Amino acid sequence: MEQVLRIVFIASECVPFAKTGGLADVVGALPRVLRDRGHEVIVIIPKYAEIQWGSYVPERLLHSMGVWMGNGQEWCAVDGTHVDGTPIYFIEFDRFFQRPGLYHDSRFNDYSDNALRFGLFTRAALQLIIDLRFQADIVHVHDWQTALAPAYLKIWHWNHDILGRCASVLTIHNIAYQGVYPADCYEYLGLQWSNFSSNRFEDHGRVNFLKGGIQFSDMITTVSPKYARETRSPEFAHGMAPYLNDRGDAYVGILNGVDYSTWNPEIDPLIPAVYSSDSMNGKRVCKEVLQRRMGLEEAPDVPLFGVVSRFAEQKGLHLLGEALPLMLEKMQMQCIVLGSGDPRLERVFADMPARFPGRCGVYIGYHDELAHWIEAGCDGFIMPSIYEPCGLNQIYSLRYGTLPVVRATGGLDDTVEQYDESSGRGTGFKFTAPLASAVFDTVGWAVSTYYDRPHHFQSMQRAAMSRRFSWDDSVTHYLEIYREARRRKP
Ligand code: ADP
Ligand code: GLC
Questions:
Q1: For a disulfide at 27, which of 11, 36, 333, 363, Cβ 3.0-4.6 Å?
Q2: pTM here?
Q3: pLDDT at 332 exceeding the cut of 60
């Protein structure tokens, strides 16, 4: 019997409580699978004003917990609840978290005190571990928001009876966001000026949270093997390549799993009709109902493509925005876009339904049910990302038999197998050039396959639906990483 590990997740997002992207899905899913393997896991997140409590009722656990910041103490409170048996703790500190949004205000301006907010949260999370007397083996942190924890462990808690034995693992979900702030927050963060050097936290005179995390954590992971290779080169690493390369084999890629109890067309309660690869009738119903809902022509034999995405530069949707009008002019196809973010892109897509009535449907916003409908009702799914650490929607698409059209980068390349026209094998259509013309050509390739080689399209759908990217496999890798982190801990 393997040794039971005691693991603490410290993160800025976790479903179902607070989500802006896939990070929340990962932090929601991984602890449950670790618990199923017999390990003890707790999760700590900030108590934002916008926590989605749903049917969960938080309980006040600590009324005032002192946390050392700068030269004095801040006083936090702690609430707790359980999700499927996993304890989730919420750090309450109203000055920082009683405001709209997780990271920015309603006009997408990042909060100017984010360094202080997430520094305080991270330090409070470590204090909570001490106050709970939770003898943790591993602290697992995610992205820049919590990347200071490995440093705090080594600078402040190396000799502590609870935290002194605790190893750290940092997972990078997106290296473009590093948490870089003017140095005037450094005193408050309490990281010691001796660590304000170019091989620790200092970055062109500013403080870089992620850089410090890379230096101080015992092991570092990212969310796909290909992104791990990409981020070792300057093109993808946003300045972090030398530091990651310095860490050698302490940096590895582990592909995210997906939650097949939520994303499975055989049991999905959100979609109009369920289906499986043996009986695809339900998928035809889903397409018809989706076309009607989005005001499209109810054309069962016209290929329908979907997009569900944050509108951020990373996602390459400017390429699609450029290519889509030409695609709709030249090809017998339809397209549905769901997403929000960059106001310029919102405008580009919001105009499309009027320009192509009955052929293009757009919903600007966040809509979970519609995301499920799109996965189920479309024939193809477009993800032209400039970079993609892992990506979840293409994996959902595979399970729903909705063939992904993707740029061969990061996790997209690791999870989608290129269509081979001679054999009919593959699970999707990939391109490499980050150009609108490449999006146009590759969607065109999918459209021609749909019309001219329907037996290939259908066998690819069956192949895609049979692929599994389960958390079970990923967890086996994470457990190896946890053990390795413990071995490497000084
Ligand atoms: P990222 O985390 O970079 O945004 P991922 O593909 O890892 O990309 O995860 C995105 C997650 O957010 C998926 O669960 C996806 O379904 C969801 N999502 C993104 N935008 C929307 C939206 N507008 N409506 C509903 N779900 C969305
Ligand atoms: C980030 C990445 C995305 C990844 C997600 C979960 O948001 O952009 O590719 O799937 O984190 O790890």
A1: 11
A2: 0.95
A3: yes
